[in-house]
Amino acid sequence: MERLREQFPSLGREVGGRPAVFFDGPAGSQVPQVVIDAISGYLSSSNANTGGAFATSVESEAVVDEAHRAMADFVGASDPAETAFGPNMTTLTLALARALARTWGPGDEIVVTSLEHDANYTPWVQAARDSGATIVEAGIHSEDCTLNMDDLQAKLGQRTRLVALTAASNAVGSLTPVADVARTAHEAGARLFVDAVHYAPHRLIDVHGWGCDFLACSPYKFFGPHMGVLWGRRELLEELTPYKLRPSADTLPGRWMNGTPSHEGMAGTTACVDYLASIGGEGPDGRRGALRRAFERVADYESGLAVKFLEGLSALPDVRVWGITDLARLDERVPTVALTHARRTPEEIARILGERGIFVWHGNYYALPLTEALGLEPEGMVRIGLLHYNTAAEVDRLLDELRRID
Ligand SMILES: Cc1ncc(COP(=O)(O)O)c(C=O)c1O
Omega of the bond prior to 32 within 30 degrees of 0, cis? Predict the structure, then answer.
């Protein structure tokens, strides 16, 4: 992992003569040099729109095709045309919600959960309102901030048309049983939309293994550029009617991609998927196999950091961790840790740490359904997000600084 750090130029940044510590990954991760090179390489030599009869346009099309293939490998899809690119997850989810709402009506129910980022909540609330459907909210276990599966199951029924579920909470790090929810949703005749934005840098997404119907994620959270990606089952993406312009393609994936996408972002996305695959190393099973091995390594390394961090935090009497703290349950969470302090507000803590070169978030980071359910508005929590480029020494440094706060 130390060798991997060398690939990220921004990790060399200093604050007050000390290395900066990037624990702000859940809001956007740092980027390895190969991604920067892919973006600037595209802009330097192949920059053009697609569909033209000249070299740079033909090259741009190849860049676009390769990005779809990379994202299909990344999410575990066999068909690259099932992946659509957009500016971010929120925009793509709003577009999908608007298309799905055309098929809903009064009496239909849409299930959301209290664990969500607002991007997997308000688009469905608005789409339900416009179509006359009803929103039903499944709750959490507030003691460990995990999804309440009994409540979710009780809220699913004949009327449910869609379940919108995060694979991992961007605030407290809890994982959800996506495959179980997919099964239950399908038994009720509903579809499952998965928000994998926070999950993506930590574990392997597996749309076929999970059996979900739609999924969205954002490359800028997994070491790539600012972009969003939507995946959906081919027959659903074909049968739904998105809002789109007349001259734009009516075939997949074009019908879900409005306007000219960021080709440089797509070049960078391929590079970040290849960067992740490189952690898995070469093997007989192609890029998907390499990604599988890479995420096993990432999960293993991250869980070592999580043990150290959670153990250290448990010795700080002023700190309360919101989420799973039981070290025997680390496979139910990613190392994104939210905490509050007995005497300092989350903003004060983030400011003090920021001055000392440690970058963390405070507030609700748009996980408003969760902070509301926990009664933590308006101040929210401090969020420390560990990624595989973080180190045990950085965790120690953060624990020391937290200890020093009076
Ligand atoms: C879990 C989760 N879902 C959705 C989003 C929204 O993603 P985007 O910024 O790509 O719209 C975020 C961003 O922080 C997130 O963490």
Answer: no
Determine if ligand 1 sits within 6 Å of the CB of residue 172. no
- Is the CB of 155 within 6 Å of ligand 1? no
Phi and psi torsions of 19, nearest 5°: -60, 135
For tokens 């920059």, the residue is: 47
CA 47 – CA 174 distance, rounded (Å) = 41
Q: Are 203 and 294 within 8 A, CB to CB? A: no
pTM of the entire structure? 0.98
Contacts of 318 (CB under 8 A, 6+ apart): 341, 342, 343, 405
Side-chain-side CA neighbours of 347 within 13 Å: the count stands at 5
Nearest atom, ligand 1, residue 195 CA? 3
Nearest to 323 by CA among 140, 116, 112, 139: 140
Domains of the chain and CATH, by start = 2-23+297-404 (3.90.1150.10), 38-276 (3.40.640.10)
Q: What is the DSSP letter of 380?
A: B
Selection from 299, 304, 381 nearest residue 347 by Cα = 381
Measured in Å, residue 68 CA sits from the centre of ligand 1 at 20
Q: Residues of the chain whose pLDDT is less than 50?
A: none
CB 84 within 8 A of CB 283: no
- Report which protein residue has its CA nearest ligand 1's atom 14: 27
Name the residue type at position 56. T
Reported as a single tens digit per residue, the pLDDT across 197-210 is 999 999 999 999 99
How many A from CA of 335 to the centre of ligand 1? Answer: 17
